[in-house]
Amino acid sequence: MLKDQLIHSLLKEEQILQNKITVVGVGALGMACAIGILMKDLAGELALVDVMEDKLKGEMMDLQHGSLFLRTPKIVSGKDYTLLIVSNPVDIFDL
């Protein structure tokens, strides 16, 4: 095709991750794990689960604000453990 002959891409097309990781608990350790997951581009979706809804919402909003500069397209949160469906839960407990 003529377009392919005339235009050469300087950057490689990046693969979009299709996996989901859930972090249960948004204490210091849970948030450290969440930030590490985002910084290393390990998931296409990050889900946060905790029973403290106010703290959960605040942490999610902070991550969403900072994720404008990262590749993870979706960050969700909730107190309902159904977010674990089709997920790779991070098995670290923040007590």
UniProtKB/TrEMBL annotation:
Which taxonomic lineage is given here?
A: Eukaryota, Metazoa, Chordata, Craniata, Vertebrata
Top-level taxon of origin: Eukaryota
Q: Name one GO cellular component term.
A: cytoplasm
- State one Pfam family annotation: Ldh_1_N
Which keywords belong to this entry?
Answer: Cytoplasm, Membrane, Transmembrane, Transmembrane helix
SUPFAM superfamilies, from UniProt? Answer: NAD(P)-binding Rossmann-fold domains
In the record, biological process GO terms are: carboxylic acid metabolic process
Task: Report the locations given in the UniProt record.
Answer: Cytoplasm
**GO molecular function terms here?**
ATP binding; oxidoreductase activity, acting on the CH-OH group of donors, NAD or NADP as acceptor; protein kinase activity
UniProt domain Protein kinase: residue ranges: 1-95
Predominant location: cytoplasm
Return the protein name.
L-lactate dehydrogenase A chain
